[in-house]
Amino acid sequence: MTSGLSQLLEAAPPRYRTATEYVEATLREAILSGAIAPGTPLRQEELATTFKVSRMPIREALRQLEAQALVDFEPHRGAVVVQITLLDAMDNYAIRAALEPQALRLSIPHLGEEDFTIAEEILAEIDQETDPGRMGELNRRFHMTLYAQAGLPRLIALTEQHLASADRYLRFHLAAIGDMGQDEHRDMLAACRAGDEARALDALARHHGRASTAMRAFFEAREAPRG
Amino acid sequence: MTSGLSQLLEAAPPRYRTATEYVEATLREAILSGAIAPGTPLRQEELATTFKVSRMPIREALRQLEAQALVDFEPHRGAVVVQITLLDAMDNYAIRAALEPQALRLSIPHLGEEDFTIAEEILAEIDQETDPGRMGELNRRFHMTLYAQAGLPRLIALTEQHLASADRYLRFHLAAIGDMGQDEHRDMLAACRAGDEARALDALARHHGRASTAMRAFFEAREAPRG
DNA sequence: TGCCTGTCGATTGGATCCAATCTAACAATT
DNA sequence: AATTGTTAGATTGGATCCAATCGACAGGCA
Q1: CATH number of the domain that residue B71 is part of
Q2: A interface toward B at CB cutoff 8 Å?
Q3: A92 and A197: one domain?
Q4: pLDDT of A115-154, one tens digit each?
Q5: In sequence order, what are the residues at sequence separation of 6 or more whose Cβ sits closer than 8 angstroms to the Cβ of residue A127?
Q6: In chain C, which nucleotides are within 7 Å of a protein Cβ?
């Protein structure tokens, strides 16, 4: 049959099926990575020329980004890249601190050796990585590998979405605590391997707690450097 | 000054500022209430004539509903109202079981007597209500009243969104357990009043747990009535 | 009969055009 | 001088038009 061909098609699917998909994915990546600064107004005409499409796919993409809380939309005034504030960061942490333990808890019983191997490889990659952007990507993949067996697609997608949003705070995170929390990562992985749910959840909670308090201290020091 | 005027404007804002807003809000309500059945294909031309607008606001609205996971969008094939399945319901419960305790926990310390009074009134209304649609609305308002003081807008919005999604399962919920869990509601409210976080969270967990297991049993009985 | 192929209507995706709204600068009035 | 009114340009919202894709059905071929 065509199993060889279908493998090829799996490996190289047509990149985007519609212009809207293309614009949406590219814009989201640009916002999350910080390539477009928070507060930047997104002019439809301007985006249309840079993407070499009409304003229509731009408009549809912006609508979807609005629903994902990546841009603010005001009628007749256009879209603006959402700001990064302490409140936003705390909001994101609170949401992840709720979703991630749930995903991990449901996933742990179904994790297998293949998952642990992949997670281990990602941890090793993180150790050697220096580029902040790639580190965010690797961090996300590590976490999602451990959550992937939860079996609830919406929970997983929602968790991944908010983990991706956290990339926006990555620069601040690194400035605040300097590392990606590899100690907690390793502890979490070891606990998962041992099937020790309580310990894994504890490691994850420490992970969130440490990052969240560090971030808060960092922002508050920034906002009132001399009081 | 104009404090009287601004109160008036608060009370009666222009209903919708754009056609897209209007279509989106109306369609969402229709989907959540079940007025449009799961699996229904949403033809753009058809919707355009019923809403008396062109296809353009329809398209933008459908994009936003897709990002909210209320319709499935397939390129060149259009939008379909998402199905109601056991997996979907479990997914929704898992997400709410993660988000709601977090919101409640953060909100409890800032709840005041006004909030308790409002919550109490809503509970009384639920007791007398028979219309399932209104009961979903009231249930949502009760929960959100207790979560509202969490101080994190995104967490609150996300929680409310998934609480609203649960309205889609309301018929099944009522068929499965017959009531809205008023006992747990009352226990939760009393615990909040007493500032007893642990007891409030416990009541909420029982609320979710009971609903979730009942729903699972109900679906499984439906899917394999004679095996 | 069963399967492939081509064609046509229906539907969506994208481009272009027009109308409505916002912003800012400037003029006019007190 | 400060506030209000006006007007022009920029920008978004909405409508219409054309192109691309999908699905079903009919016809040809083994």
Answers
A1: 1.10.10.10
A2: 17-18, 20-21, 59-60, 63-64, 66-69, 75-76, 87-88, 90-92, 94-95, 97-99, 101-102, 106, 150, 152-155, 158
A3: yes
A4: 999 999 999 999 999 998 899 999 999 999 999 999 999 9
A5: A182
A6: 11-17, 20-23
Segment (H or E) for B94: helix B86-107
Size of interface A-B (CB pairs under 8 A): 82
Closest residue, chain B, to A73 (C-alpha): B21
Tell me the CA–C1' distance in angstroms for B55 and D17: 13
Query: In terms of residue numbers, what domain contains B39?
Result: 3-81
Total domains in the fold of chain A: 2
Cβ contacts of B87 on chain A, cutoff 8 Å = 152-153
Query: How far is residue A8's CA from residue B83's CA, in Å, rounded to a whole number?
Result: 32
**A134 CA from C12 C1′ (Å):** 37
pLDDT tens digits in sequence order for chain B, 227 residues long: 445 655 655 556 668 999 999 999 999 999 999 999 999 999 999 999 999 999 999 999 999 999 999 999 999 999 999 999 999 999 999 999 999 999 999 999 999 999 999 999 999 999 999 998 899 999 999 999 999 999 999 999 999 999 999 999 998 899 888 889 999 999 999 999 999 999 999 999 999 999 999 999 998 888 776 53
Residues A76 and A94 occupy one common structural domain: no
Q: How many CB atoms lie within 10 A of CB B88?
A: 19
Same domain, B65 and B104: no
Asked whether the beta carbons of B126 and B139 are under 8 A apart, the reply is yes
Task: From A40, A59, A81, give the residue that closes a domain.
Answer: A81
Are residue A219 and residue A186 in the same domain, yes or no?
yes
The alpha carbon of residue A180 is apart from the nearest alpha carbon of chain B, in Å, by: 24
Q: Which residue of A has its CA nearest to B64?
A: A64
Tokens 């399945």 correspond to what residue?
Answer: B85
Measuring from the CA of residue B59 to each C1' atom, give the nucleotide at the shortest distance.
C12
Residue ending a domain, choose from A57, A81, A105: A81
Searching chain A, which residue's CA lies closest to the CA of residue B103? A94
Cβ neighbours of residue B151 under 8 Å, at least 6 residues apart? B106, B107, B110
Q: Are residues B148 and B219 in the same domain?
A: yes
